[in-house]
Amino acid sequence: MADPKGFITTPRETPTRRPVDVRIQDWREVYEPQSFEQLQKQAGRCMDCGIPFCHDGCPLGNLIPEWNDLIWRGDIHEAIDRLHATNNFPEFTGRLCPAPCETACVVAINRDAVTIKQVELRTIEEAFANGDVKPLAPDRLTGKTVAVIGSGPAGLASAQQLTRAGHTVVVYERADKIGGLLRYGIPEFKMEKRILDRRLEQMEKEGTRFRAGVDVGGELTGSSLRKKYDAIVLAIGATQWRDLSIKGRELKGVYQAMEFLPWGNKQALGEIETPEINVAGKDVVILGGGDTGADCLGTSIRQGAASITQLEIMPRPTEERPASQPWPTYPMIYRVSSAHEETDNRLFSVSTEEFLGDADGNLRALKIVETIFVNGKFESVPGTEKEIPADFVFLALGFTGPERSNLLTQLEVEIDDRGNIKRDLNFAANEDGVFVTGDAGRGQSLIVWAIAEGRSTASAVDRYLTGDSQLPSPIEPTTRQLMV
Question: Whole-model pTM?
Fold first, then answer.
């Protein structure tokens, strides 16, 4: 193990965030650099447990005690090899994952958990800085071809694994650039896009081919894909957003979160001077208290909104782990993101009854009411109605499954009862040679699940194409059966 007394003698310490009044003036990531010596001390808090529950908390099965020990000993080269053994993109998860591994950490039973996420992030950053992240091109090509539709984390993980297995892989993306929600949904202050671009550069050198700006299902039909490729991987995500069909929904100023966030990223990167959706000097209300809502919050702050209010229909969570969510489960507790440090005007236990507009059809306010949860449903509290001024409302209410695109019709894939693309325990759709990975088959989930699904799907595709596979599969068929 690392430091035998580290979890007793060393307190948990995370990197310092840049001062609020400084960081809201730019779009850069919010954390200040952390010294490697400090990181080693944090890695030394790992107990190397007899039963490392962090493995169970991580869908990727990351070898957490192993690379914690290696970092503590200063062996960065071996540490990145152990990290890459289970995770294609630790620089993404180290920034964006909510770290269920930490809530499952054995130290967290009665102390602060090991800073697993930060050790992971700094390990890969040290590796990039030292030139240890190199292309891993296959020794030989199999002659088999695979089309991956969608370039989010699941699609990229599938593509990289299948390329390294020797298949010729082409990734298609309908947006202007590769990356999916990593590029257009994640704000720059959470992950700068240069982080994505350097990994794409590695994948290109390995042999993965990228085709952005392609309307698959339109200019490139499903039948064309079937003729051109030996296998197709659908990694199109769950981008069908949940709407709020109440009076006034048609007013100008009411947008989905994913209609707003891409403009913030384009603005942050200097691709445009004035975004089409610009909240500078305006009153903003965000519906939804999750990560997407926080992303809208941080973006609105940096655009210069006059006021921002975030509404959540659920009650305010407790700050301690609820008794109904014992260790090592992931608890629903009150959390403060970096955006909430910058402006936190959250209202809990409220519901929006109506969007109110002016004579010209522009949004001017929301009518809200307090709610209580009774007999399995939310009920309004009489006499608590009030209005909140709003020029813009962003709906961050989650997603209901993949879009019902022409491609799905052309490929004749089936949809399950939850609205996702139907697949079997080997990630295969009902049509031969078509596979489904990530949120498209699982439903909206975490980035670690997306990468785990991508890796597992790649193993299944490799087996389909060659009869066997040496690619690791973090989600085995028997495990998937238990999860369904």
Answer: 0.95
